[in-house]
Protein backbone atom coordinates (compact mmCIF):
# COMPACT_ATOMS: atom_id res chain seq x y z
CA UNK A 1 0.00 0.00 0.00
CA UNK A 2 1.28 3.45 -0.87
CA UNK A 3 2.28 5.64 2.07
CA UNK A 4 0.57 8.91 2.92
CA UNK A 5 4.04 10.31 3.60
CA UNK A 6 6.53 8.65 1.21
CA UNK A 7 9.35 10.79 2.67
CA UNK A 8 9.37 8.34 5.57
CA UNK A 9 10.68 5.69 3.16
CA UNK A 10 12.25 7.48 0.19
CA UNK A 11 14.82 10.26 0.00
CA UNK A 12 14.97 12.88 -2.74
CA UNK A 13 17.99 12.59 -5.00
CA UNK A 14 20.62 15.22 -4.18
CA UNK A 15 21.36 18.02 -6.61
CA UNK A 16 24.75 18.41 -8.26
CA UNK A 17 26.84 21.40 -7.19
CA UNK A 18 27.56 22.77 -10.67
CA UNK A 19 27.75 26.55 -10.76
CA UNK A 20 27.29 28.12 -14.16
CA UNK A 21 26.21 24.86 -15.82
CA UNK A 22 26.47 25.20 -19.59
CA UNK A 23 24.42 22.34 -20.99
CA UNK A 24 20.97 24.06 -20.81
CA UNK A 25 22.03 26.50 -23.53
CA UNK A 26 23.65 23.88 -25.76
CA UNK A 27 22.09 22.44 -28.93
CA UNK A 28 22.71 19.04 -30.48
CA UNK A 29 24.16 19.76 -33.91
CA UNK A 30 25.77 16.44 -34.90
CA UNK A 31 25.11 12.76 -34.24
CA UNK A 32 27.08 10.90 -31.58
CA UNK A 33 28.89 7.63 -31.96
CA UNK A 34 26.26 4.90 -31.57
CA UNK A 35 26.71 1.60 -29.79
CA UNK A 36 24.02 -1.06 -30.00
CA UNK A 37 23.90 -3.27 -26.93
CA UNK A 38 20.89 -5.23 -28.20
CA UNK A 39 22.91 -8.44 -28.44
CA UNK A 40 24.29 -8.13 -24.91
CA UNK A 41 22.26 -5.93 -22.54
CA UNK A 42 19.10 -6.42 -24.57
CA UNK A 43 19.66 -10.15 -24.95
CA UNK A 44 20.28 -10.79 -21.26
CA UNK A 45 16.92 -9.19 -20.42
CA UNK A 46 14.89 -11.54 -22.64
CA UNK A 47 12.74 -14.33 -21.24
CA UNK A 48 14.20 -16.54 -23.98
CA UNK A 49 17.63 -15.23 -24.98
CA UNK A 50 18.47 -15.23 -28.67
CA UNK A 51 20.02 -18.32 -30.16
CA UNK A 52 22.84 -18.11 -32.69
CA UNK A 53 20.46 -17.80 -35.67
CA UNK A 54 18.57 -14.90 -34.11
CA UNK A 55 21.73 -13.17 -32.96
CA UNK A 56 23.16 -13.36 -36.47
CA UNK A 57 19.92 -12.02 -37.92
CA UNK A 58 20.02 -9.14 -35.42
CA UNK A 59 23.68 -8.48 -36.19
CA UNK A 60 22.93 -8.27 -39.92
CA UNK A 61 20.06 -5.86 -39.21
CA UNK A 62 22.35 -3.57 -37.22
CA UNK A 63 24.83 -3.55 -40.09
CA UNK A 64 22.04 -2.64 -42.50
CA UNK A 65 20.85 0.19 -40.26
CA UNK A 66 24.40 1.53 -40.15
CA UNK A 67 25.52 0.88 -36.57
CA UNK A 68 29.33 0.92 -36.47
CA UNK A 69 29.89 -0.22 -32.87
CA UNK A 70 28.05 -3.36 -31.78
CA UNK A 71 28.29 -5.03 -28.39
CA UNK A 72 28.05 -8.58 -29.69
CA UNK A 73 27.91 -10.36 -26.36
CA UNK A 74 29.37 -11.45 -23.04
CA UNK A 75 31.83 -14.19 -24.10
CA UNK A 76 32.70 -15.36 -20.60
CA UNK A 77 29.01 -15.99 -19.81
CA UNK A 78 29.06 -19.41 -21.50
CA UNK A 79 29.82 -21.47 -24.57
CA UNK A 80 26.88 -20.12 -26.58
CA UNK A 81 28.10 -16.54 -26.30
CA UNK A 82 31.77 -17.44 -26.80
CA UNK A 83 31.09 -19.56 -29.89
CA UNK A 84 28.88 -16.95 -31.51
CA UNK A 85 31.45 -14.18 -31.07
CA UNK A 86 34.42 -16.27 -32.17
CA UNK A 87 32.31 -17.47 -35.12
CA UNK A 88 31.74 -13.90 -36.29
CA UNK A 89 35.50 -13.38 -36.30
CA UNK A 90 36.29 -16.73 -37.90
CA UNK A 91 33.68 -16.29 -40.66
CA UNK A 92 34.84 -12.79 -41.55
CA UNK A 93 31.33 -11.48 -40.85
CA UNK A 94 32.47 -8.21 -39.28
CA UNK A 95 33.00 -5.42 -41.85
CA UNK A 96 36.25 -3.49 -41.65
CA UNK A 97 34.48 -0.30 -40.57
CA UNK A 98 32.59 -1.95 -37.69
CA UNK A 99 33.89 -2.37 -34.15
CA UNK A 100 32.71 -5.49 -32.32
CA UNK A 101 32.53 -4.86 -28.60
CA UNK A 102 32.41 -7.40 -25.80
CA UNK A 103 31.72 -7.01 -22.08
CA UNK A 104 33.54 -8.59 -19.19
CA UNK A 105 33.53 -8.36 -15.45
CA UNK A 106 36.74 -7.25 -13.75
CA UNK A 107 38.10 -10.75 -13.11
CA UNK A 108 41.33 -12.19 -14.48
CA UNK A 109 39.90 -15.47 -15.80
CA UNK A 110 36.89 -13.77 -17.42
CA UNK A 111 39.05 -11.13 -19.07
CA UNK A 112 41.33 -13.81 -20.51
CA UNK A 113 38.34 -15.69 -21.93
CA UNK A 114 37.01 -12.46 -23.40
CA UNK A 115 40.22 -11.75 -25.31
CA UNK A 116 40.35 -15.33 -26.53
CA UNK A 117 36.86 -15.01 -28.06
CA UNK A 118 38.17 -12.22 -30.28
CA UNK A 119 41.38 -13.89 -31.38
CA UNK A 120 42.02 -13.00 -35.01
CA UNK A 121 39.75 -9.92 -35.06
CA UNK A 122 41.06 -6.95 -37.00
CA UNK A 123 39.88 -4.56 -34.32
CA UNK A 124 37.71 -4.75 -31.23
CA UNK A 125 36.58 -2.96 -28.09
CA UNK A 126 36.84 -4.73 -24.74
CA UNK A 127 34.52 -3.25 -22.12
CA UNK A 128 35.22 -3.85 -18.44
CA UNK A 129 33.16 -2.59 -15.52
CA UNK A 130 32.89 -2.58 -11.76
CA UNK A 131 30.17 -1.06 -9.60
CA UNK A 132 31.23 1.95 -7.53
CA UNK A 133 28.16 3.38 -5.76
CA UNK A 134 27.59 3.23 -1.99
CA UNK A 135 24.79 0.64 -2.15
CA UNK A 136 27.01 -1.78 -4.07
CA UNK A 137 30.10 -1.03 -1.98
CA UNK A 138 28.34 -1.42 1.33
CA UNK A 139 25.66 -4.03 0.61
CA UNK A 140 26.82 -6.16 -2.32
CA UNK A 141 30.64 -6.17 -1.98
CA UNK A 142 31.20 -4.91 1.57
CA UNK A 143 34.29 -3.05 0.39
CA UNK A 144 35.60 0.43 0.97
CA UNK A 145 36.58 2.97 -1.67
CA UNK A 146 40.24 1.97 -2.02
CA UNK A 147 39.27 -1.68 -2.52
CA UNK A 148 36.76 -0.77 -5.24
CA UNK A 149 39.35 1.47 -6.91
CA UNK A 150 41.86 -1.39 -6.84
CA UNK A 151 39.41 -3.59 -8.77
CA UNK A 152 39.33 -1.00 -11.55
CA UNK A 153 43.13 -0.66 -11.58
CA UNK A 154 43.68 -4.42 -11.69
CA UNK A 155 41.17 -4.78 -14.52
CA UNK A 156 42.89 -2.03 -16.52
CA UNK A 157 46.24 -3.78 -16.17
CA UNK A 158 44.69 -7.05 -17.35
CA UNK A 159 43.27 -5.28 -20.41
CA UNK A 160 46.68 -3.84 -21.22
CA UNK A 161 48.53 -7.12 -20.73
CA UNK A 162 46.06 -9.33 -22.62
CA UNK A 163 46.01 -6.93 -25.54
CA UNK A 164 49.81 -7.09 -25.73
CA UNK A 165 49.57 -10.86 -26.29
CA UNK A 166 47.55 -10.28 -29.50
CA UNK A 167 49.36 -7.39 -31.20
CA UNK A 168 47.78 -8.01 -34.61
CA UNK A 169 44.41 -6.78 -33.33
CA UNK A 170 43.70 -3.06 -33.01
CA UNK A 171 42.48 -3.09 -29.41
CA UNK A 172 40.35 -0.34 -27.90
CA UNK A 173 39.10 -0.22 -24.35
CA UNK A 174 36.00 0.90 -22.49
CA UNK A 175 35.69 1.31 -18.74
CA UNK A 176 32.41 1.72 -16.86
CA UNK A 177 32.18 2.86 -13.28
CA UNK A 178 28.91 0.92 -13.07
CA UNK A 179 26.09 2.55 -11.07
CA UNK A 180 27.73 5.90 -11.90
CA UNK A 181 24.48 7.85 -11.65
CA UNK A 182 23.99 6.87 -7.98
CA UNK A 183 27.67 7.15 -7.00
CA UNK A 184 29.62 10.07 -5.62
CA UNK A 185 31.01 12.05 -8.53
CA UNK A 186 34.44 12.47 -6.97
CA UNK A 187 34.81 8.71 -6.51
CA UNK A 188 33.64 7.94 -10.05
CA UNK A 189 36.23 10.44 -11.28
CA UNK A 190 38.90 8.84 -9.08
CA UNK A 191 38.23 5.39 -10.57
CA UNK A 192 38.25 6.75 -14.13
CA UNK A 193 41.51 8.61 -13.56
CA UNK A 194 43.10 5.46 -12.12
CA UNK A 195 42.17 3.51 -15.28
CA UNK A 196 43.45 6.36 -17.48
CA UNK A 197 46.80 6.25 -15.66
CA UNK A 198 47.17 2.55 -16.51
CA UNK A 199 45.94 2.54 -20.11
CA UNK A 200 47.49 5.87 -21.16
CA UNK A 201 44.95 6.81 -23.87
CA UNK A 202 45.79 9.36 -26.56
CA UNK A 203 43.67 11.54 -28.85
CA UNK A 204 44.43 9.04 -31.63
CA UNK A 205 43.37 6.04 -29.50
CA UNK A 206 41.09 7.36 -26.77
CA UNK A 207 39.66 5.40 -23.86
CA UNK A 208 35.89 5.10 -23.79
CA UNK A 209 34.52 6.10 -20.39
CA UNK A 210 30.96 4.87 -20.09
CA UNK A 211 28.99 6.74 -17.44
CA UNK A 212 25.84 4.68 -16.98
CA UNK A 213 22.55 5.48 -15.36
CA UNK A 214 22.50 1.82 -14.35
CA UNK A 215 19.32 2.51 -12.43
CA UNK A 216 17.55 5.75 -13.26
CA UNK A 217 16.92 7.45 -9.92
CA UNK A 218 16.66 11.15 -10.74
CA UNK A 219 15.38 13.59 -13.31
CA UNK A 220 17.40 13.79 -16.55
CA UNK A 221 18.73 17.25 -15.78
CA UNK A 222 20.65 15.79 -12.84
CA UNK A 223 22.23 13.19 -15.12
CA UNK A 224 23.22 16.01 -17.47
CA UNK A 225 24.82 17.83 -14.53
CA UNK A 226 26.77 14.68 -13.67
CA UNK A 227 28.01 14.33 -17.24
CA UNK A 228 29.05 17.97 -17.49
CA UNK A 229 30.84 17.71 -14.12
CA UNK A 230 32.90 14.76 -15.35
CA UNK A 231 33.64 16.49 -18.67
CA UNK A 232 34.89 19.55 -16.77
CA UNK A 233 37.04 17.63 -14.29
CA UNK A 234 38.50 14.67 -16.20
CA UNK A 235 42.22 15.22 -16.71
CA UNK A 236 42.63 14.18 -20.36
CA UNK A 237 39.38 15.20 -22.00
CA UNK A 238 40.88 15.01 -25.49
CA UNK A 239 41.91 11.40 -24.89
CA UNK A 240 38.62 10.00 -23.64
CA UNK A 241 35.25 9.37 -25.25
CA UNK A 242 32.36 10.04 -22.87
CA UNK A 243 29.70 7.43 -23.46
CA UNK A 244 26.14 7.38 -22.15
CA UNK A 245 24.24 4.27 -21.12
CA UNK A 246 20.86 5.32 -19.75
CA UNK A 247 18.07 3.15 -18.45
CA UNK A 248 14.38 3.95 -18.39
CA UNK A 249 13.33 3.26 -14.81
CA UNK A 250 11.70 6.71 -14.51
CA UNK A 251 10.62 6.81 -18.16
CA UNK A 252 13.19 9.40 -19.20
CA UNK A 253 16.01 7.34 -20.66
CA UNK A 254 15.82 9.12 -24.02
CA UNK A 255 15.66 12.56 -22.41
CA UNK A 256 18.64 11.75 -20.18
CA UNK A 257 20.68 10.69 -23.20
CA UNK A 258 19.78 13.83 -25.13
CA UNK A 259 20.63 16.11 -22.20
CA UNK A 260 23.81 14.10 -21.66
CA UNK A 261 24.84 14.87 -25.24
CA UNK A 262 24.14 18.54 -24.61
CA UNK A 263 26.36 18.24 -21.54
CA UNK A 264 29.31 17.14 -23.66
CA UNK A 265 29.06 13.38 -24.18
CA UNK A 266 30.30 11.81 -27.41
CA UNK A 267 28.61 8.42 -27.61
CA UNK A 268 25.22 6.84 -26.89
CA UNK A 269 24.66 3.20 -25.98
CA UNK A 270 21.26 1.61 -26.19
CA UNK A 271 18.91 -0.81 -27.90
CA UNK A 272 16.53 -0.60 -30.82
CA UNK A 273 13.09 0.31 -29.42
CA UNK A 274 14.50 0.44 -25.89
CA UNK A 275 14.74 -3.22 -24.94
CA UNK A 276 16.79 -3.96 -21.84
CA UNK A 277 16.70 -4.86 -18.17
CA UNK A 278 13.62 -3.83 -16.15
CA UNK A 279 12.06 -0.91 -18.05
CA UNK A 280 14.70 -1.01 -20.76
CA UNK A 281 17.68 0.86 -22.15
CA UNK A 282 17.81 4.10 -24.06
CA UNK A 283 15.92 3.69 -27.35
CA UNK A 284 18.37 4.32 -30.17
CA UNK A 285 15.58 4.61 -32.74
CA UNK A 286 13.87 7.43 -30.86
CA UNK A 287 17.06 9.37 -30.15
CA UNK A 288 18.18 9.05 -33.78
CA UNK A 289 14.84 10.06 -35.27
CA UNK A 290 14.48 12.92 -32.79
CA UNK A 291 17.69 14.27 -34.31
CA UNK A 292 16.42 13.59 -37.82
CA UNK A 293 13.32 15.74 -37.19
CA UNK A 294 15.66 18.57 -36.19
CA UNK A 295 17.44 18.43 -39.54
CA UNK A 296 20.39 16.31 -38.38
CA UNK A 297 21.35 13.15 -40.23
CA UNK A 298 21.78 10.64 -37.38
CA UNK A 299 23.88 8.27 -39.47
CA UNK A 300 21.39 5.46 -38.86
CA UNK A 301 18.98 4.45 -41.61
CA UNK A 302 15.39 3.62 -40.66
CA UNK A 303 13.96 4.10 -44.15
CA UNK A 304 12.16 0.75 -43.79
CA UNK A 305 11.03 0.97 -40.19
CA UNK A 306 8.64 -1.95 -40.57
CA UNK A 307 11.44 -4.30 -41.60
CA UNK A 308 13.39 -3.21 -38.53
CA UNK A 309 10.34 -3.83 -36.33
CA UNK A 310 9.71 -7.28 -37.80
CA UNK A 311 13.29 -8.38 -37.25
CA UNK A 312 13.48 -7.02 -33.70
CA UNK A 313 10.15 -8.57 -32.75
CA UNK A 314 11.23 -11.93 -34.19
CA UNK A 315 14.59 -11.92 -32.42
CA UNK A 316 13.39 -10.55 -29.08
CA UNK A 317 9.99 -12.23 -29.08
CA UNK A 318 8.65 -8.95 -27.71
CA UNK A 319 6.16 -6.68 -29.49
CA UNK A 320 6.83 -3.05 -30.35
CA UNK A 321 4.06 -1.09 -28.66
CA UNK A 322 1.48 0.42 -31.06
CA UNK A 323 2.14 3.83 -29.47
CA UNK A 324 5.94 3.55 -29.59
CA UNK A 325 7.48 6.81 -30.91
CA UNK A 326 7.97 6.76 -34.69
CA UNK A 327 7.55 2.99 -34.95
CA UNK A 328 4.19 1.99 -33.46
CA UNK A 329 1.39 1.16 -35.86
CA UNK A 330 -0.77 3.97 -34.42
CA UNK A 331 1.76 6.78 -34.03
CA UNK A 332 0.85 8.43 -37.33
CA UNK A 333 -2.87 7.79 -36.90
CA UNK A 334 -5.53 10.31 -35.89
CA UNK A 335 -9.04 9.32 -34.82
CA UNK A 336 -10.08 12.68 -33.35
CA UNK A 337 -12.09 14.86 -35.72
CA UNK A 338 -10.23 18.08 -34.97
CA UNK A 339 -6.87 16.34 -35.35
CA UNK A 340 -7.96 14.83 -38.65
CA UNK A 341 -9.10 18.16 -39.97
CA UNK A 342 -5.79 19.80 -39.05
CA UNK A 343 -3.79 16.98 -40.68
CA UNK A 344 -5.90 17.10 -43.83
CA UNK A 345 -5.38 20.85 -44.13
CA UNK A 346 -1.69 20.41 -43.42
CA UNK A 347 -1.28 17.97 -46.28
CA UNK A 348 -3.13 20.31 -48.61
CA UNK A 349 -0.88 23.21 -47.59
CA UNK A 350 2.19 20.99 -47.94
CA UNK A 351 1.19 20.11 -51.49
CA UNK A 352 0.54 23.75 -52.38
CA UNK A 353 3.85 25.08 -51.05
CA UNK A 354 6.83 25.17 -53.36
CA UNK A 355 9.39 23.89 -50.86
CA UNK A 356 10.37 20.66 -49.11
CA UNK A 357 10.04 21.84 -45.51
CA UNK A 358 7.78 19.48 -43.57
CA UNK A 359 5.07 21.31 -41.62
CA UNK A 360 1.99 19.16 -41.03
CA UNK A 361 0.07 19.42 -37.76
CA UNK A 362 0.36 16.41 -35.42
CA UNK A 363 2.99 14.73 -37.61
CA UNK A 364 6.54 15.63 -36.51
CA UNK A 365 8.01 13.44 -39.27
CA UNK A 366 6.89 12.50 -42.78
CA UNK A 367 5.78 8.85 -42.51
CA UNK A 368 7.13 8.24 -46.01
CA UNK A 369 10.66 8.91 -44.75
CA UNK A 370 10.28 5.73 -42.69
CA UNK A 371 8.73 3.68 -45.47
CA UNK A 372 5.16 4.20 -44.28
CA UNK A 373 2.35 5.51 -46.49
CA UNK A 374 -0.41 7.99 -45.68
CA UNK A 375 -3.24 5.46 -45.81
CA UNK A 376 -3.37 4.92 -42.05
CA UNK A 377 -2.69 8.53 -41.03
CA UNK A 378 -6.41 9.17 -40.58
CA UNK A 379 -8.67 6.39 -39.40
CA UNK A 380 -12.35 6.62 -38.64
CA UNK A 381 -14.31 5.75 -35.53
CA UNK A 382 -17.05 7.40 -33.49
CA UNK A 383 -14.66 10.26 -32.54
CA UNK A 384 -13.87 11.18 -36.13
CA UNK A 385 -15.12 14.24 -37.97
CA UNK A 386 -15.76 15.20 -41.56
CA UNK A 387 -12.09 15.85 -42.26
CA UNK A 388 -11.13 12.30 -41.37
CA UNK A 389 -13.83 10.76 -43.53
CA UNK A 390 -12.90 13.01 -46.44
CA UNK A 391 -9.24 12.10 -46.05
CA UNK A 392 -9.95 8.38 -46.26
CA UNK A 393 -11.98 8.85 -49.45
CA UNK A 394 -9.31 11.06 -50.96
CA UNK A 395 -6.50 8.62 -50.18
CA UNK A 396 -8.42 5.49 -51.12
CA UNK A 397 -10.54 6.66 -54.05
CA UNK A 398 -9.04 9.98 -55.10
CA UNK A 399 -12.26 11.88 -54.28
CA UNK A 400 -12.00 15.43 -52.94
CA UNK A 401 -15.42 16.08 -51.49
CA UNK A 402 -16.68 19.67 -51.25
CA UNK A 403 -16.85 20.85 -47.64
CA UNK A 404 -20.64 20.76 -47.31
CA UNK A 405 -20.71 17.30 -48.84
CA UNK A 406 -18.05 16.24 -46.30
CA UNK A 407 -20.36 17.37 -43.51
CA UNK A 408 -23.31 15.57 -45.08
CA UNK A 409 -21.50 12.25 -45.39
CA UNK A 410 -19.77 12.47 -42.01
CA UNK A 411 -23.19 12.20 -40.35
CA UNK A 412 -23.72 8.90 -42.16
CA UNK A 413 -20.34 7.59 -41.05
CA UNK A 414 -20.87 8.82 -37.50
CA UNK A 415 -24.14 6.93 -37.27
CA UNK A 416 -22.52 3.79 -38.67
CA UNK A 417 -19.59 4.03 -36.24
CA UNK A 418 -21.94 4.50 -33.30
CA UNK A 419 -24.02 1.55 -34.43
CA UNK A 420 -21.07 -0.79 -35.00
CA UNK A 421 -19.01 0.42 -31.98
CA UNK A 422 -15.75 -0.20 -33.82
CA UNK A 423 -13.24 1.44 -36.09
CA UNK A 424 -14.42 1.75 -39.70
CA UNK A 425 -11.98 0.79 -42.42
CA UNK A 426 -11.80 2.18 -45.95
CA UNK A 427 -14.04 -0.58 -47.31
CA UNK A 428 -16.72 0.23 -44.71
CA UNK A 429 -16.62 3.91 -45.60
CA UNK A 430 -16.76 3.30 -49.35
CA UNK A 431 -19.70 0.92 -48.98
CA UNK A 432 -21.57 3.55 -46.97
CA UNK A 433 -20.67 6.21 -49.54
CA UNK A 434 -21.97 4.12 -52.45
CA UNK A 435 -25.17 3.39 -50.60
CA UNK A 436 -25.84 6.93 -49.44
CA UNK A 437 -25.20 8.56 -52.82
CA UNK A 438 -26.85 5.80 -54.85
CA UNK A 439 -23.77 4.69 -56.76
CA UNK A 440 -24.16 0.92 -56.53
CA UNK A 441 -26.90 -1.59 -57.22
CA UNK A 442 -30.13 -1.02 -59.09
CA UNK A 443 -31.27 2.60 -58.94
CA UNK A 444 -34.43 4.43 -60.12
CA UNK A 445 -32.46 6.31 -62.77
CA UNK A 446 -29.32 5.04 -64.53
CA UNK A 447 -27.69 6.65 -67.53
CA UNK A 448 -27.34 4.50 -70.65
CA UNK A 449 -26.34 7.14 -73.17
CA UNK A 450 -26.95 10.79 -73.96
CA UNK A 451 -26.44 13.43 -76.61
CA UNK A 452 -26.04 17.17 -76.22
CA UNK A 453 -26.86 19.62 -79.01
CA UNK A 454 -27.77 23.26 -79.61
CA UNK A 455 -25.95 26.55 -79.50
CA UNK A 456 -24.19 28.21 -76.62
CA UNK A 457 -26.72 29.32 -74.04
CA UNK A 458 -29.43 27.11 -75.52
CA UNK A 459 -28.48 23.47 -75.02
CA UNK A 460 -30.64 20.40 -75.53
CA UNK A 461 -30.06 17.21 -73.58
CA UNK A 462 -31.36 14.00 -75.10
CA UNK A 463 -30.74 10.92 -73.03
CA UNK A 464 -31.61 7.29 -72.61
CA UNK A 465 -31.93 6.02 -69.04
CA UNK A 466 -33.21 2.97 -67.24
CA UNK A 467 -36.37 3.61 -65.24
CA UNK A 468 -38.63 1.12 -63.45
CA UNK A 469 -36.98 -1.85 -65.09
CA UNK A 470 -37.07 -0.51 -68.64
CA UNK A 471 -35.44 2.03 -70.88
CA UNK A 472 -36.79 5.52 -71.33
CA UNK A 473 -35.79 8.48 -73.48
CA UNK A 474 -35.90 11.94 -71.92
CA UNK A 475 -34.96 15.39 -73.16
CA UNK A 476 -34.71 18.89 -71.79
CA UNK A 477 -33.55 22.38 -72.74
CA UNK A 478 -31.37 24.73 -70.72
CA UNK A 479 -28.52 27.20 -70.92
CA UNK A 480 -25.98 24.42 -70.29
CA UNK A 481 -25.62 20.68 -69.92
CA UNK A 482 -26.59 20.47 -66.26
CA UNK A 483 -29.56 22.82 -66.57
CA UNK A 484 -30.85 20.84 -69.57
CA UNK A 485 -30.56 17.58 -67.57
CA UNK A 486 -32.49 19.19 -64.70
CA UNK A 487 -35.16 20.31 -67.18
CA UNK A 488 -35.46 16.78 -68.56
CA UNK A 489 -35.88 15.32 -65.05
CA UNK A 490 -38.49 17.95 -64.19
CA UNK A 491 -40.52 17.80 -67.40
CA UNK A 492 -40.33 14.06 -68.07
CA UNK A 493 -40.10 12.50 -64.59
CA UNK A 494 -41.43 15.11 -62.20
CA UNK A 495 -38.13 15.38 -60.26
CA UNK A 496 -37.53 19.03 -59.31
CA UNK A 497 -34.02 20.04 -58.33
CA UNK A 498 -32.07 23.29 -58.37
CA UNK A 499 -28.26 23.25 -58.38
CA UNK A 500 -26.76 25.39 -55.61
CA UNK A 501 -23.15 24.41 -56.19
CA UNK A 502 -21.08 22.40 -58.64
CA UNK A 503 -17.44 21.31 -58.62
CA UNK A 504 -15.23 18.85 -60.45
CA UNK A 505 -11.67 17.58 -60.41
CA UNK A 506 -9.43 15.01 -62.05
CA UNK A 507 -8.88 11.78 -60.16
CA UNK A 508 -5.13 11.42 -60.14
CA UNK A 509 -2.72 12.92 -62.64
CA UNK A 510 -1.77 12.35 -66.26
CA UNK A 511 -3.56 12.38 -69.59
CA UNK A 512 -5.74 9.30 -69.15
CA UNK A 513 -7.53 9.91 -65.87
CA UNK A 514 -11.10 9.90 -64.71
CA UNK A 515 -13.02 12.92 -63.45
CA UNK A 516 -15.29 13.38 -60.47
CA UNK A 517 -18.20 15.84 -60.47
CA UNK A 518 -20.24 16.95 -57.46
CA UNK A 519 -23.59 18.76 -57.27
CA UNK A 520 -25.30 20.31 -54.29
CA UNK A 521 -29.02 20.62 -55.04
CA UNK A 522 -32.06 22.15 -53.38
CA UNK A 523 -35.56 20.71 -53.51
CA UNK A 524 -38.71 22.87 -53.65
CA UNK A 525 -39.29 22.21 -49.95
CA UNK A 526 -35.78 23.43 -49.01
CA UNK A 527 -33.93 20.15 -48.51
CA UNK A 528 -30.30 19.84 -49.59
CA UNK A 529 -29.35 16.83 -51.72
CA UNK A 530 -25.85 15.93 -52.88
CA UNK A 531 -24.85 13.92 -55.90
CA UNK A 532 -21.61 12.58 -57.31
CA UNK A 533 -20.59 11.11 -60.64
CA UNK A 534 -17.33 9.74 -62.01
CA UNK A 535 -16.36 9.01 -65.58
CA UNK A 536 -13.44 9.35 -67.94
CA UNK A 537 -15.46 12.19 -69.55
CA UNK A 538 -16.11 15.11 -67.23
CA UNK A 539 -19.42 16.01 -68.95
CA UNK A 540 -20.71 12.48 -68.42
CA UNK A 541 -19.54 12.64 -64.81
CA UNK A 542 -21.65 15.77 -64.29
CA UNK A 543 -24.74 14.05 -65.74
CA UNK A 544 -24.10 11.09 -63.41
CA UNK A 545 -23.83 13.50 -60.46
CA UNK A 546 -27.29 14.97 -61.21
CA UNK A 547 -28.77 11.48 -61.53
CA UNK A 548 -27.13 10.54 -58.21
CA UNK A 549 -29.02 13.40 -56.56
CA UNK A 550 -32.24 12.44 -58.38
CA UNK A 551 -31.90 8.88 -57.12
CA UNK A 552 -31.63 10.16 -53.56
CA UNK A 553 -34.88 12.09 -54.05
CA UNK A 554 -36.57 9.01 -55.45
CA UNK A 555 -35.34 6.88 -52.56
CA UNK A 556 -36.77 9.38 -50.04
CA UNK A 557 -40.14 9.18 -51.75
CA UNK A 558 -40.30 5.39 -51.38
Automatic annotation (TrEMBL):
GO terms for molecular function: 2-isopropylmalate synthase activity; acetyl-CoA C-acetyltransferase activity; magnesium ion binding. The keyword Iron does not apply. It is an enzyme of class 2 (transferase). It is found in: Cytoplasm. Signal peptide: none annotated. Its cofactor is Mg(2+). Residues 440-558 are annotated as: Regulatory domain. Keywords: Acyltransferase, Amino-acid biosynthesis, Branched-chain amino acid biosynthesis, Cytoplasm, Leucine biosynthesis, Magnesium, Metal-binding, Transferase. It catalyses: 3-methyl-2-oxobutanoate + acetyl-CoA + H2O = (2S)-2-isopropylmalate + CoA + H(+). Belongs to the alpha-IPM synthase/homocitrate synthase family. LeuA type 2 subfamily. HAMAP family: LeuA_type2. This is 2-isopropylmalate synthase. It comes from Sphingobium chlorophenolicum L-1.
Amino acid sequence: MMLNDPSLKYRPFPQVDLPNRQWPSKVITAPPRWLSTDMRDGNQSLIDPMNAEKKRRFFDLLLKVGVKEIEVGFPSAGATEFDFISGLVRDGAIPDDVFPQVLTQAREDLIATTFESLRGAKKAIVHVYNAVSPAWRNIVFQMDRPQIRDIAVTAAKLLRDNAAKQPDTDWHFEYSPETFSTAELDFSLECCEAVIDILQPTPEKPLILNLPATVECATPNIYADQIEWICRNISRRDSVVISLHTHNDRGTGVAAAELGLMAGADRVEGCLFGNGERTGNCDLVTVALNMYTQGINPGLDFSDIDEVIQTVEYCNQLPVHPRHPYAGELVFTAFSGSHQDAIKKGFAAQEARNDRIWDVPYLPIDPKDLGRDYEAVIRVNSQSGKGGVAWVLQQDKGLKLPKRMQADFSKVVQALADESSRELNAADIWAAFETHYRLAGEQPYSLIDYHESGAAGDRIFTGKITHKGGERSISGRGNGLISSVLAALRDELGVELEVADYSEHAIGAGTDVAAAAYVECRTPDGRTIFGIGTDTDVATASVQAVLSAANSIAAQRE
